[in-house]
Amino acid sequence: MCCHTIDEESLQRGEKWPLYKEQIAGMQFFDPHVHMTSRTTDDYQAMADAGVVALIEPAFWLGQPRTGLDTFRDYYSSLIGWERFRASQFGIKHYCTIGLNSREANNEALAEQVMEILPLFVYKEGVVGVGEIGFDDQTAAEEKYYRLQLELAKEAGLPVQIHTPHRDKKKGTTRSMDIALEHGLDPRMVIVDHNNEETVKEVLDRGFWAAFTIYPFTKMGNERMVDVVKQYGPERIMVNSAADWGISDPLAVPKTAALMKERGISVEDIRLVTYQNAVTAFAQSGQIEESDFSSVKSIDQSQKFAGNTVLRGGQAPRVDKDSVFIR
Ligand SMILES: [Zn+2]
User: What is the distance in A from the centroid of ligand 1 to the CA of 320?
Assistant: First the structure.
């Protein structure tokens, strides 16, 4: 057997899965940005099988315009409730960040009301930051609610997860950091997300964390991520999938790790950018203990959340032996 190498296209098409899975066997991953609410149980299973042990689900835009405040209340509640339970049923530890995303900050009447309920959620257990917040179209309303939420993060002592705009990214990224500093935030408490080759140097030079989202077929791909780590090293860099309801890949983190291994990046550097740095950054919330990752490892799918399970009629629950309490 020879000549089986991993390349970006085959990774994204899902080919050679056994090969790259073999490359990363035994490694653990932390995906610090993934919208599981939009994903399926198959995704959870595939992530667990690929070594994802924990993840962060940032609050964001659901695609459908909101009709009222209660939809935010229910959404935030599901991030700390049902979705956390659902992840646990696949052995994955689920955390979230809570915030008003930039796009919906433009609905000012609603944004005002959302700001009033945010403090009811950011202090809850397992909330590891205020996010994802920042700029989309870089409007005055976006700036207003970004600033208000930076103050909220400061008050709560929580890290901030910044969404940088896809249009006019360089300017938006610089502006996001300028404003964070203006509000007196320590750059080490701020994770700047969706970086690319144009933004990474400034983000790292100014002492912020630089997160990279691997988007299939576009923008930041796996190959480009490998080059970034080769050029800048692993310090304060982290990789995420930002998988959501659009075309995205919940396995982006383990796949990128496999490609890094293939391209000769050390196992320790891979561990830093696909696991440890994100843990370190968000553990500043005081809400993450690595030992908790194993607390969901013994799966008992006969458990219920508010009377609901992940099972459908007639399905047998998976109950790991060591989760059964034997008297
Ligand atoms: Zn997102």
Answer: 33
Question: What's the gap in Å between 240 CA and the centre of ligand 1?
Answer: 10
- List pLDDT tens digits, range 33-79: 999 999 999 999 999 999 999 999 999 999 999 999 999 999 999 99
Digit-coded pLDDT (tens) for 250-271: 999 999 999 999 999 999 999 9
User: Which domains are present in the chain?
Assistant: 24-303 (3.20.20.140)
Distance 32 CA to ligand 1 centre (A): 10
pTM of the model: 0.93
Three-state SS annotation for the chain:
CCCCCCCHHHHHHCCCHHHHHHHCCCCCEEECCCCHHHCCHHHHHHHHHCCEEEEEEECCCCCCCCCCHHHHHHHHHHHHCHHHHHHHCCCCEEEEEECCCCHHHHCHHHHHHHHHHHHHHHCCCCEEEEEEEECCCCCHHHHHHHHHHHHHHHHHCCCEEEECCCCCHHHHHHHHHHHHHHCCCCHHHEEEECCCCCCHHHHHHCCCEEEEECCCCCCCCHHHHHHHHHHHCCCCEEEECCCCCCCCCCCHHHHHHHHHHHCCCCHHHHHHHHHHHHHHHHHHHCCCCHHHHHHHCCCECCCCECCECCCCCCCCCCECHHHCCCC
- CB under 5 Å of ion ligand 1: residues: 60, 242
**Ligand 1 geometric centre to CA of 162 (Å):** 10
Instruction: Determine the distance separating the centroid of ligand 1 and the alpha carbon of 18, expressed in angstroms.
Output: 29
Q: Residue 307 C-alpha to ligand 1 middle, in angstroms?
A: 29
